[in-house]
Amino acid sequence: MVIAYIRVLEQQERSGGRIGRVCASIRKLDVACCKTGIFAADAPPLLPYKDQGGPGSFHSEPRPVAYTDEQARTMIAHIDPSDSAVACLLTLMRVTGLRVREASYLKASDINLEQCNLSLNEEDNSNRTKGGRPRPVIFEPEHKAFLEQLKHLGEENPTGHIFHDRHSLPDRARVCVRKACSDLNILSLGTPGFRKTFAEEDYQRNIQAGASDQQALLKTAQQLGHNRAEVTRQSYISPS
Predict the structure, then answer these.
(1) What is the pLDDT of residue 123?
(2) pTM higher than 0.85, yes or no?
(3) What are phi and psi of 111, to 5 degrees?
(4) Which of 7, 58, 154, 239 is the most exposed, having the fewest neighbouring CB atoms within 10 Å of its CB?
(5) Is residue 230 part of a domain?
């Protein structure tokens, strides 16, 4: 059961560092239970090590590698016939840089077409932002028609959300992306790869607008929901 739980965390695209911490906690719990007599001294381990048939080690390994714009568009087109909602979700991530859960829970009221921005700032955190932190997200005017379509969908939904099936949507998106990458022979970066596609384009826009490297990194970090330029450098923007 414990190994199955770790596999679920992998499928949910949790970071290697987080999964590693979960594994360490489970093993400490195992030792404590054996010492207190809850488990028999010769009971099999809750979470075996790799040489005992368990999972390998997990580490935080930031990878500033993104899907190219062509790859992202090709994958979305490949997914669209079988799951149009997932294709729409991934497009939203590509043009705004939202996390998969943030995009899944976006509401019509969050979209400001006149100012070309999204407001993730509700007190009850219905947007599912990481850590519950509010933030504005700017989108390019060229994507206004797409966001207008989404806003219309949300206005027709009694809850105001864009997606009716938002609870299961993130997991469906992860499955679809893995399959599309396999079908198209594209290196799988999971759903975060679409955020990274957005990040690279946003960084280049900032540079072309006259920002320094540090300023561009910080602006992109703020768009993504981070507050340090170094996070963008380590995890989103390739040194090349």
Answers:
(1) 56
(2) no
(3) -100, 120
(4) 239
(5) no
